[in-house]
Each structure stands twice: as C-alpha cells, then as structure tokens.
Amino acid sequence: MKAVVITSPGGPEVLQLHQVDDPQIKDDEVLIKVAATAINRADTIQRQGKYPPPKGASEYLGLECSGTVEAVGSRVSRWKIGDQVCALLSGGGYAEKVAVPEAQVLPVPQGISFTDAAAFPEVACTVWSTIFMTSRLSPGETLLVHGGSSGIGTFAIQIAKHIGIRVFITAGSKEKLEACRDLGADVCINYKTEDFVARVKEETDGKGVDVILDCLGASYFQRNLDSLNFDGRLFIIGMMGGTKTEMNLPTLFAKRLTVQAAGLRYRTAENKAAIVNEVEKNVWPAIAAGKVKPIVYKVFPFSEAADAHKLIESSQHIGKILLVPS
C-alpha cells in the first residue's frame, strides 16, 4: 500500500508518499481501506519528532479515518467485510489501509458523505469525553471554546447548542467570528482586539462561564480561571500557548474551581472503547438529525500532505482539513 511517511523530523516538506507494507490485523481488529483521513494539530507535532505514537500503534500519521472494512479478525463480531465505517485511530490514517480495534469503529453517520465522515471521530471523541463525560457540561450552562473556528471548535459549538448550552468562542478574524456565529455561537470574541475575560464577565453579569475548553494552555491559564463562574471547570486539551505557568491559588479556593486536562491518543483501548460507545449513543443521532454537520475547509490528496500541514499550521482554515488517497 501507499502511505505518507515522515522521512525525518522537520517541517511539512519531510512528508513523502512511499510504498510500504500492509498492516497486519489482530484478532480483535478490522482492516479498513481508507477513503479519507483528517489533519489534526497532533500530526504536525508528531512530524516534528515531539509526539511519538503509543506503543504498538502504527508509525504513520492520522488519528481518524473513514473507509470500507476489508478484513476482520477472528474475534470481531459487529463488523463485516464491505461495511462503510469511520474510526478513531492511534495512528495510521495517512495510509491506504489501517488496522483498528473493533470497538473504535463507528458506522458512517446517516446523511453524511463517505469522505466527510472522516471529519468526525477525533473531534467528537475529544469534545464528548472532555466537557461532557468529565466536566459534566449540562443544559442551561455556559461554555467558552478557545479556537472556535478550529475542527474541535466548530464541532463543539454545534453539539453544545444542540444540547442547550450558551456558547462563547474566541477567534482571530472577522471571517472566523462570522463562521462561528453562523454555527450558533452566542458570543463571539476577537482575541486580537478584545479582552476575553472582560467580555465574558460583561455578558454573564460578572459571573463567568461554567466550562472552558482550552487548547492554549499556559498563556491563557490564569485568564481562564478569572473567566469561570463558581464551581467552574477548565478543561485543557492543548498547549499551543506554552507548557509552564504560574497560578493564583486563592482563585481556585474562592470559586471552587476544577482544572482538568487530558489527551485522547494515549488512553487505554478500554477507555477509548467507552468513549466511542458514548459518542455513538449521544452524538451520532444529532448528526443524523442534521443538528451537527461536518465543516470541511479543504480536501487534499495524500501526495499533497505537506501542503495540508502548511495550511493547518497557518491557522487560516475554518473547520477540518481532509486527506484522501491519491
């Protein structure tokens, strides 16, 4: 098969399409012939040599895919050859075939194209496992999403609005703010020209929001705490703004705040299976009903993976960037 290979750690130019061996499936895995995969920020970090795949995972990039089941292991019961599916991966999506545990496979959502289905597994599992399963975001509460126009952000806006949440977002351009507003965001803040803490306080009568989904980390840490309501929850899923910071501990005590953080890739197979199961029960019906739609900015062939990485690192996109076999 062909796969996009990291020829050496570095910039986007190190990505090249090579002929490689097909993956071998285990008894509890299915082999998927990939129709599409999606670019995630984590891919760019792995390309730089800073985010190795978990032990036993594919060495190739790609944390999600859509495709057709081509083979099944001896202990696989749900899926059969020919099924059209999408899947949460630990790696391997940037290849023509990928092996994945049965429990991390999902049906292509009703009403969604085969290609666009690749835009959902990573964002759906990330958002649902963090702010809903862990932070217990509930109808009637308020949510602030940093990077509202990202793949994570555009999904979070839609699913939160569907559930009855008042949604605040930050973004850095008029175009991105308008896109978020069109998806249902209630309060759209340009972080380049506005103080998001002040705006959040203004829009909540000084209270703050109940939950924050943050991809920046250190650079926003104290300001996020200052933006939370009593019993507020901050969930950190990225460190684009740095890894080390200082905090004002009395803020936590005074407002009974909770700080949470997690990634998805290094979780156990059992934990991923539980998340995928919850996503299928809670998110897939919303997609089928048209309440949550795939936001796809551009589709590249595998042979142009370097250009796709340049685009995501430029932050000029809105929503997801997809790759399809050349």
Automatic annotation (TrEMBL):
PANTHER family: OS02G0805600 PROTEIN, QUINONE OXIDOREDUCTASE PIG3-RELATED. InterPro entries: ADH-like_C, ADH-like_N, ER, GroES-like_sf, NAD(P)-bd_dom_sf, Quinone_OxRdtase_PIG3. Pfam families: ADH_N, ADH_zinc_N. GO terms for molecular function: NADPH binding; oxidoreductase activity, acting on NAD(P)H. It comes from the Eukaryota. SUPFAM superfamilies: GroES-like, NAD(P)-binding Rossmann-fold domains. Residues 10-323 form the Enoyl reductase (ER) domain. NCBIfam families: quinone_pig3. This is Enoyl reductase (ER) domain-containing protein. Keywords: NADP, Oxidoreductase. Gene3D superfamilies: Medium-chain alcohol dehydrogenases, catalytic domain, NAD(P)-binding Rossmann-like Domain. It comes from Linum tenue. Coiled coil: none annotated.
